[in-house]
Specification:
The chain is an alpha+beta fold. It folds into two domains: 35 residues; 77 residues. Helices cover 26% and strands 35% of the residues. The protein is built from two helices and eight strands, in the order ααββββββββ. The chain has a five-stranded mixed β-sheet, with no helix packed on it. A three-stranded antiparallel β-sheet has the order 2-3-4, with no helix packed on it. Helix 1 runs antiparallel to helix 2.
Length: 120
């Protein structure tokens, strides 16, 4: 970067351009430094061939996701009712229990293995 600035200052009339390059670099540096910090990912998803629910009246229990017909199932915790998303929006009119035996995308917390939402 310093080499570019020296090159720009070497030619007459390019001092303004050099000043703009320096200003842009100084303004962008804190932003790019903030972007380098990777936020920890706390969610993952399973596109399930079908899901099996084993929950009580309060929605607590277990969800078993089958990624494919021959794949080993993945067991996840249900700590209460979860929102079902349809066409990219939450749909409170859809009871999550209606997805039992159906295909769905299961969004879950990777540290606690708790189901966060279901996408249909």
């Amino acid at each position: 970067m310093l080499r570019i600035i020296r090159h720009l200052l070497h030619f007459p009339g390019r001092a303004l351009l050099a000043a703009l390059v320096i200003t842009g670099t100084l303004l962008a540096a804190p932003v790019s430094a903030g972007l380098r910090r990777d936020a920890p990912h706390s969610e993952d998803a399973i596109e399930a061939h079908h899901i099996a629910l084993s929950v009580n009246g309060q929605g607590r229990g277990e969800l078993i996701a089958y990624p494919c017909a021959d794949c080993p199932p993945r067991s996840l915790k249900m700590t209460g009712p979860v929102m079902v998303w349809v066409k990219g929006r939450p749909d409170p009119g859809v009871d999550f229990r209606s997805l039992d035996g159906q295909e769905a995308t299961v969004i879950f917390d990777i540290t606690t293995l708790q189901v966060l939402r279901l996408v249909r």
